[in-house]
Amino acid sequence: MASKILVYSTPTCPHCIRLKQFLSENKVDFINYDVSVDREKADEMIKKSGQMGVPVTDIDGQLVIGFDKEQIKSVLGLT
Amino acid sequence: MYDLIIIGAGPAGITAAVYAARKKMDFLVLTGDIGGQTIWSSNVENYTGYQFITGVELAQKFEEHMRQYKISVRENEPVISLEKAKDFFTLTTAKAVYQSRTVIIASGKRSRELGVAGEKEFRNKGLTYCATCDGPLFSGKDVAIVGNGNSALDAALQMVRISPRVYIINKVSSLSGDAVMREKAISAKNITVINDATVTEILGDKLVTKIRIKRNRSLEEIPVQGVFVEIGLIPNSDFASLVKKNDLGELEVDCRNSTSVEGIFAAGDVTSVPEKQIIIAAGEGAKAALSSFRYLAGHKF
């Protein structure tokens, strides 16, 4: 079953842009929440991750904070 | 044993790698990330050949160019120590130990930290070094910006539209930065500039709730939910204890990018080169690679 992937990001953050590009390049589908405008999702992100830095990626409930390429690869089983 | 190890993959390190690849040197790149500080520039309008490009896009172009060659790049592997043996160098990372005849240090700069209590605990829990990234999350919240230059003013003017109260905590008696931005900040109704003040502590529970500042020998507390640290950059040169540095901690280089240690070259923002610019860092990286090549050609190992 394909993973459900949520990305919490802002349009101005370079690591968010790179994260989204990285996922696209690896043909990984994701839902992006722009937390600079979506207050509800911003609060959800802070609640889930206990911190306020973007990006945050939620892979089936498993959180990756920041653009940590190696951690995302290992959670998704990419090589 | 490598011919060359390049430390860092910003504009200087990547350009050095391209030159080294074209000279068919046996080399390796050890770095934390790819792109370096370039990705933090929102717009680049002075890199020849591109009238306008974003920092992220330019960093990608650099990376693509480098990946045209079969270059061994170890990401997430910053160098922790650099030591000299008889006629080679030993480089240590968290993952391995490497040996090389020459080294190019192109490790760039990073945000300067406040060095106060609570800073590490509340990093990304209200305290951030990237106002551009995280700023929008503080909409409706009071914030303090620490610093007095253009990046501090830039952050203040970004936050003024979404925060009820914005404080600028400035160590000296007046703001620096561009006059236009300074005036905008001073005239904004919801910005309070606190001069001659230093932050002594970040306080909070799970997230930041206030900061403690020292002004005129007295301690005051300011309730804020966000703290943006914009107090400049410092060179990533801690591991390079062998090499002579200037007062700012930058590695001293001559016009051939040689450092005080024969066989160690350096390029880009980590060095004493005047002017920290993407195009200059790239050019310096090219020079450093050619100097390393010449050095190897002139020595019999």
Please describe the topology of this protein.
The complex is a heterodimer of chains A (79) and B (301).
Chain A: E1 5-9, H1 14-25, E2 31-34, H2 39-49, E3 56-59, E4 62-65, H3 69-76
Parallel strand pairs in A: 1-2
Antiparallel strand pairs in A: 1-3, 3-4
Chain B: E1 2-7, H1 11-22, E2 27-30, E3 43-44, E4 53-54, H2 55-67, E5 72-74, E6 79-84, E7 89-93, E8 97-105, E9 109-111, E10 127-128, H3 131-134, E11 143-146, H4 150-159, E12 166-169, H5 179-187, E13 191-194, E14 197-204, E15 208-215, E16 218-223, E17 226-229, E18 233-235, E19 264-266, H6 278-297
Helix pairs in contact in B: 1-2, 1-6, 4-5
Describe this structure in words.
The complex is a heterodimer of chains A (79) and B (301). With 79 residues, chain A is an alpha+beta fold. Chain A has a single domain (5-76), classed as Glutaredoxin, CATH 3.40.30.10. Chain A has helices spanning 14-25, 39-49, 69-76, and strands at 5-9, 31-34, 56-59, 62-65. Chain A has a four-stranded mixed beta sheet with strand order 2-1-3-4, with helices on both faces. Chain A is globular. Chain A starts with a strand and ends with a helix. The mean pLDDT of chain A is 92. In chain B, the strands form five sheets. In chain B, strands 1, 2, 5, 6, 7, 8 and 19 form a seven-stranded mixed beta sheet that branches. Chain B has a five-stranded parallel beta sheet with strand order 10-17-11-12-13, covered by helices on one side. Chain B has a three-stranded antiparallel beta sheet with strand order 14-15-16, with no helix packed on it. Chain B is elongated and about 65 Å long. Chain B has helices at residues 11-22, 55-67, 131-134, 150-159, 179-187, 278-297; strands at 2-7, 27-30, 43-44, 53-54, 72-74, 79-84, 89-93, 97-105, 109-111, 127-128, 143-146, 166-169, 191-194, 197-204, 208-215, 218-223, 226-229, 233-235, 264-266. Chain B starts with a strand and ends with a helix. The mean pLDDT of chain B is 95. Chain B folds into two domains: 2-110 and 233-297, FAD/NAD(P)-binding domain (3-Layer(bba) Sandwich), CATH 3.50.50.60; 127-229, FAD/NAD(P)-binding domain (3-Layer(bba) Sandwich), CATH 3.50.50.60. In chain B, α1 (11-22) runs parallel beside α2 (55-67). By secondary structure, chain B is of the alpha/beta class. In chain B, β15 and β16 form a beta hairpin. Classes of the chains: A alpha+beta (79), B alpha/beta (301). The interface between A and B is medium-sized, with 23 and 25 residues.
